[in-house]
Amino acid sequence: MSSSSYAPCAACKYLRRKCTQGCVFAPYFPPDNPQKFINVHKVFGASNVGKILNELSPGGQRNEAVNSLAYEAECRIKDPIYGCVGLVSLLQHHLRQVHQEIDRARQELATYIGPAAAMQPHNFNFNQAAGQQLAVIQEPQLQMNAALAPAHDQQQQQMYVQQLQQQQQQQMYVQQLHQQQQMYVQQQQNDIVRFSDEGNQESGAFGHIPAAVVATGVEAEIALGGGGTLEEVVAEVEADAVQTYEYQVR
């Protein structure tokens, strides 16, 4: 490629130096987005960024590193005091609220599925608990059918019909709990997406937030004693749907 047709990257253009084909900045700071490099250079310095990239293998590692640096620089410029810590603290606050709501949900569940089942570890599986509850409901029904087969007493038959109706209501209740769980999880995901979109509207650099940076908020909460692993936290958010439905039916 001739030098006349080779457009310098945003880094070399900003630093006013010749951009070669082997420039370490060129793949990650295109000329059409100069603000990305300006922010990174202002916070970290071009030489430090170059050292970081040279220490990483080309490809995915460098790309993730540049996106992380760009995101951190953007946060630091917007919030010179806290930077990324402000967003991480907000996520930690949301997680603490979720933990508190889950504890209250377990207390409510104890009245329906028993205290032992409600105090299971954080990887509580709502679908498994619902299946167990359905099995508990169906087992007495089968036993009752066998007991009433030879009986012709009208009063017992009426009681049997009433119990069947109650069991059907309980089954509908469990199904509604499961639907409420799915709706609540979807709402939580929409809130997270909306929160990220609000940041994206303020600056284009937020559109390149890597997955590792988003996970930092959750990992920081875990490191500070806020809960278990990421999978456990997701399972806890799903269990929180039970409490939401309990308040609505009341």
From TrEMBL:
<comment type="similarity">
    <text>Belongs to the LOB domain-containing protein family.</text>
</comment>
<protein>
    <submittedName>
        <fullName>LOB domain-containing protein 36</fullName>
    </submittedName>
</protein>
<feature type="domain" description="LOB">
    <location>
        <begin position="7"/>
        <end position="109"/>
    </location>
</feature>
<dbReference type="InterPro" id="IPR004883">
    <property type="entry name" value="LOB"/>
</dbReference>
<dbReference type="Pfam" id="PF03195">
    <property type="entry name" value="LOB"/>
</dbReference>
